[in-house]
Design brief:
alpha+beta, 10 strands, globular, 35% helix, 221 residues, two-stranded antiparallel sheet, 8-stranded antiparallel sheet
Length: 221
């Protein structure tokens, strides 16, 4: 079974507050006896130098290292305290054989897609979240892998900008609006709008035209 949920976990809250256009995509996540909680993630929407400072000062971060820098994203490895409620949620997910498939945060919470054995396991996991004071919203549940989450795999913010772009004629020929106009309506920067739209289109195509595995490799369906 595939479940999509939004978690209001406190991880990196301060960093998001300082960078309203920031979006994070988790590349890897691990927690155990020797490593309490480690994230590897791509960050977009903020200058790398500013992110370095914010992440280093974030109270939910114990250590952070920049691993790679591209034209539009920065790859980080961050270590977090083992007593964060998010660690307990991760461990509970492992106990119920939940497998993380994707996790994205665009400032509106951690939108997570995972494989979990059944609805009972998902219900128990949600109850554990509530016990720890972590808000959780189950956005979709699908019993087959070919079903989609967030509406074809889209996060709420990706769906919002794609819908707005369609309604305003961004995809029309000739084009009836500009990316800058879309950004103004959403009250975000043009760079953030561009990245959100591009990422949304990538997810939409990968979940419809192409079949995409969890590592990001695509094969024609």
């Amino acid at each position: 079974m595939i479940a999509c949920c939004r978690f209001d976990a406190e991880v990196l809250e301060t960093t998001f507050a300082e960078h309203p256009d920031l979006s994070l995509e988790v590349e890897g996540l691990h927690a155990g006896e020797s490593i309490p909680f480690r994230l590897v993630f791509w960050a977009r929407g903020a200058p790398a130098a500013d992110l370095d400072v914010s992440l280093a000062a974030d109270p939910t971060v114990e250590d952070v290292r920049r691993l790679a820098t591209t034209d539009d994203a920065v790859l980080y490895r961050s270590m977090h305290p083992g007593d964060l409620p998010a660690v307990s949620i991760y461990n509970a997910a492992i106990e119920h054989d939940a497998l993380l498939l994707a996790a994205i945060n665009e400032g509106d919470g951690w939108n997570v897609r995972f494989r979990i054995p059944d609805r009972d396991a998902l219900s128990t996991l949600c109850e554990r979240c509530q016990d720890l004071g972590i808000g959780v919203d189950v956005t979709s549940i699908h019993d087959r892998d070919d079903a989609t989450c967030y509406g074809f795999g889209l996060t709420p913010s990706q769906r919002e900008i794609l819908t707005l772009a369609w309604e305003r004629g961004y995809f029309s020929v000739p084009r009836e609006t500009t990316l800058a106009s879309l950004a103004d309506e959403l009250d975000i920067s043009q760079q953030a709008a561009s990245e959100r739209l591009r990422r949304g289109l990538w997810v939409l195509v990968s979940n419809t035209v192409c079949e995409c595995d969890v590592d990001g490799n695509t094969d024609m369906a």
